[in-house]
Input
Amino acid sequence: MNRAGRALLVVGDVVTDVVARHGTPLAPATDTAAEIRTLPGGAGANAACWAVRSGAGEVRLLGRVGTDAADWHERALRAAGVRPLLVRDAEAATATVIALVDASAERTFLTDSGAALRLSPADWCPELLDGVARLHLSGYLFFAGPSRGAARRALRDAGEAGVAVSVDPASAGFLAALGTDRFLAAAEGAEVLLPNADEARVLTGHADPERAAAKLSRRFPLVVVTLGAAGALVAEDGAVTARVAAPPVRPVDSTGAGDAFTGAFLAARLAGADPAKAAEAGCGAGAEAVTAVGGRPPVPPTDGRSAS
Output
C-alpha cells in the first residue's frame, strides 16, 4: 500500500435532492407555492465536491447508488472534479431527500436512504486507501448495520495504514434514534469529529456548544463544532482552543452548509493548515454555500437535470 499519498477519500452517501423553497408557511391539506429543483446531493458527495472547490488536488468518493440514477450522479461528480467510486445497487433506488426550505433559509429533511445505507463491508477493501492521506466518513453510514460495518472496517484499515480519519455525525435526529453510546463506540479511532451544535448537544447532553466541544475533545483528538452563522469552535485535549467567525451573508438555502464546511476544512488540512485556519476556510465555504440553492458548489449542468 502506498501510504505517502495526498488524496482525500470520502466514504458516504450519494443522494438525489428535491429542494422545495417555500416563502410562506406550509398550508396543511392544501397547496403551498414553492420553487422546486432536483439536484445531486448527499452529505458525503457534497463534502467531496466542496473539497475540490477548496483546492484539494485529488478527491475520491465511495458510495452506493441505485442503477436508476447512477449515470447522472457519476457525471455530476466528475463535472465537479471528484473521482466517483460508485457501487451500483440493482435492488434499491438511489437515496432521495426532500428538503423543505422556509423563508429564513432553514431546511427540514424527509429522507429515504435507499441504496446509500446498503454500502457493506464487501464494498470496502484496504486498497482503496492507496495514495490516500485522509479518509472522511459521513455519519449517515453509522445509522444502519451494513454501512456501519463498512465504516468500521474503513476506520480500522485507515488506522493500520496511518491515514487520518474524520467523521461528520450528520444528523441529530438519527443520532438520538441510534443512541449516543452506539455512535461514539462505532466512531472510536477517528482523529477528527465534525458535529454541528445540535449533534454535539445530543452526543454530550450539553446545550452549551463550548462545553459540548470540550467534552467531545476528551474522546477525539480534534473536535470542530459548527455554529451556522455564528462560525465554529475548535477543541483539543478537553478545551476550546479557537473560536472562528463566519462571514456575514444573506442566506438563501442552508442545505449542505455543513458539508461545504467539511470539504473546505479537509482541503485546508491536506494543504497543511492548522485547525483554526482550516476552520476559517470551512466557515468561508459554508457561507458561500448558503447563498445558493442546493448542497454543492456550482458546476455546469450535466444533462437535462440541473447539477448546480
User: Anything to note?
Assistant: The first helix runs from residue 43 to 53.
